[in-house]
Amino acid sequence: MVEESPRSGAAPYSEIVGDLESAIRELWAAEGVDQARLDDSPKPRRYVLGMFPYPSGKAHLGHVMVYSIADAVARLGRFKGQEVLNPLGWDAFGLPAENAAIKNGVHPADWTAANIEVMRDQIGRAGFSFDLSRELNTSSPEFYKWTQWLFLKLYQHGQAYRAQSWVNWDPEDKTVLANEQVIDGRGWRSGALIERRKMEQWCLRITDYAQALYDGLDELEGWSSRAVNAQRYWIGRSEGAEIDFTVPETGSVITVFTTRPDTVFGVTSLTIAPEHPDLAALTSAQARPAVDAYVAQVLRQSEVDRQTDDKMGVATGITAINPLTGDQVPVWVSGYVIGSYGTGAIMNVPAHDQRDFDFAVLHGLPVKQVIFDGAAPAGAELTAAHTQPGTMRDSGPFDGMKSTDAITAIIDAMQEQGVGRRKVRFRLRDWSIGRQRYWGCPIPMLRRADGTWEPVPEQDLPVRLPRDIDFQATGVRSPLATSESFSVVTLPDGERVEREVDTMDTFMDSAWYAWRFLAAGDGEAWPVQRANSWMPIDYYVGGLEHATQHMIYFRYLSHFLHSIGLTPVREPVVNFLDNGMVKLGGSKMSKSKGNTISPEEVFAEYGADTLRMYVLSDTPFEKDREWDDVGLQAKHRFLAKFYGFGTGLREVLPRTVQNVPPAATDAWGKSFVYEIAGTAAEVAVSVDEKRSFHTAISHLHSTAALLRARSREVGESLERAAILGYAYQSYLKMLSLFAPHLADTLWRQVTGADESLFRQPWVPEPDPADLVRSSAEIVVQLNGKVVGKLVVPVDADDDEIRQSLADNPPPSLANRVPDGGSQRVIVVRGRDGEPRLVSFVLK
């Protein structure tokens, strides 16, 4: 019989876990078990990538969650005989470093380098299988040289351009933000309310790829529906029509975009955006003071605030002619119309759009109903907009048609008359990448005295960030403008030109870093043949909040790179695993709220394996989970108990590597081998295909109970001892996906092998000839209410079932049973004697 505590003289797991984990990590580093052969490996490839961290100097639970998921997938790939690339880098540019420099007098480069050193050690203590030989830092010239090269490629292919545009201005960070970086009207980093300003900016024509990006969503079968839907909404494809309204006073045209051309006969006004380029020409002299004052007020608001500002507006004092009715309708200006979406002008149909209805009621504008559902009599006064399809009325030649049919007919008629056209519009807008800050990638462009721009020659890259910067200077576009060594360049012909002093949005770095991990040196950004072998990424792990920022840009650049032959497919990610957050007190953890949990402190007290298992257990990885000390401690007890069990096995098992199941001559051995192989197959499917990491960990608990039970039945049989040894070693492979330190340590102890567990193959598929059921899934109740399920050996006695329940309680049970509370645990069996239910009764 195997003891449940460490062998004689061994210290308890809780006392040695720190040394145990440190020692095995040193062996991994010395043996190079995590390094990938990118070129000459005959194995199939698996590219696994967790979104790289910003080097703030403090690792957090989000990092542990992301990299625990990626690590499980990477380790399983190695077991399956794949060549696995699982690299780590640092998203090292950004405003926090610059703000720290301003506050503390520390240069951003020095601040960033110090933080990377700290975080590399912090994350390293978790034991993730990163190939650190491929580590990168986006703020190093070796990296941003190629970010600049990529910008030049975009410029050469007409994707990068400079234009006057309305931008989102963060008054606290004093920089422009892309639309995706404005969250609820506030800057994504500073939290400051965003203002709208007009500024000349470098932009990327992401809208050229809007249709392709939208269509590509149908290919993303390995993405969650919530991630795909988030992108679908952000890209925002709308089918409709552009309609031309002529202004009789000037003969100019106001073009509107609408998805409801069937309502054109119900137009009672037009509304244009404050940013509309023709606003001045569309405003009468009498209305100009009121319009100017209103526009100045609106442009101090964020787009989100403008959408919720009770539909205020001002009449411009002119009218426009409805091309299908000949009616003259007034033109208004309102902040709820956004200049960069559509044409910057809309037609108001208050009877059939609630927003227009509210606007009309507020300003006393007419409400004209032209679509009826058959129940409402003509002339009835509306109390809300009628937004459903129906029958056309008061719509000229289209009377009596179904409104859904009239859409096509009206567009056709407008096209024939030359007053409108069929049109597809997107919510997605071009990507403004210029930032008026220092700590970012310099934009490699030069401006001549005549105002024209030309690119820096590729051979002169990188354009390096200077250190002679005055961060406190005012009245300059960017801190880079304060560096004389940087901002003015003398060309070979003697002409003095100005460098661009804006830097790039840091999302430019993360939008292409996946390819840089494939680099073979500094002679090229990446070898195309490597991209052909390794892209797309097989598993990409990160939070859902990046689905409409980083992932949009990532996909865009991949589509572009594919179009110029530098990557093999358009879509860069096969499986996107968007994980949930770990919360404390119901809120997202943050320093400002004082509700953070330090991974370092958890590592010190419980070990990294405990935390890694805990963050992925009990709850689907994509859902948020509440931090629970009880659950964390339960995982530690489980590992400690298994450590005791494993060290006891050293004295009774064959001291040899067992990757192939021994021959079994009886039902005991056959069923045991089949059970272990079947569980390994379930664990692999849960990790690779179902993304059900908590289910895989549940299998680890039930199979640990099975190992204990079978170990008590070995007796003096050498055959059973060999089969137990095989089952135990197979189990260690499963355990190692989540608790690699403990699993590899026990593996080396029991086998005496000089090489790592992670050099071994995965458990062979189960042989149907060995099929003998040996486990049962039973219901767990608390005071008569079902709270979960538990897998136990079919022949487990009542005490073993109670112990299994104590080792692996369902989360709802663990959180509701008080420590030391009075209770009974009742096991209910069927007629065949197999366990069916275990009931927990609180007295």
Protein architecture, described:
- It is a single chain.
- The chain has 843 residues and is α/β, with parallel strands linked by helices.
- 35% of the residues lie in helices and 19% in strands.
- The protein has a five-stranded parallel sheet with strand order 2-1-27-28-10. The protein has a four-stranded antiparallel sheet with strand order 6-5-9-20.
- The longest helix has 22 residues, at 667-688.
- The two termini are 36 Å apart.
Task: List descriptors.
four-stranded antiparallel sheet, globular
Summarize model confidence as the mean pLDDT. 91
Radius of gyration: 33 Å
User: How many helices does DSSP assign?
Assistant: 25
Number of strands: 35
User: Uncertain segments of ≥5 residues (pLDDT<50)?
Assistant: none
In the sheet with the most strands, the strands line up as 2-1-27-28-10
Helix fraction bin: 25-40%
Give the overall shape, derived from the CA principal axes. Answer: globular
Biggest sheet, open or closed, and with what strands and sense?
A: 5 strands, parallel
Beta-strand content bin: 15-25%
How widely separated are the two ends?
A: 36 Å
Q: Could you say which structural class the secondary elements and strand pairing correspond to?
A: alpha/beta
**How would you describe the oligomerization state of the chains in this entry?**
single chain
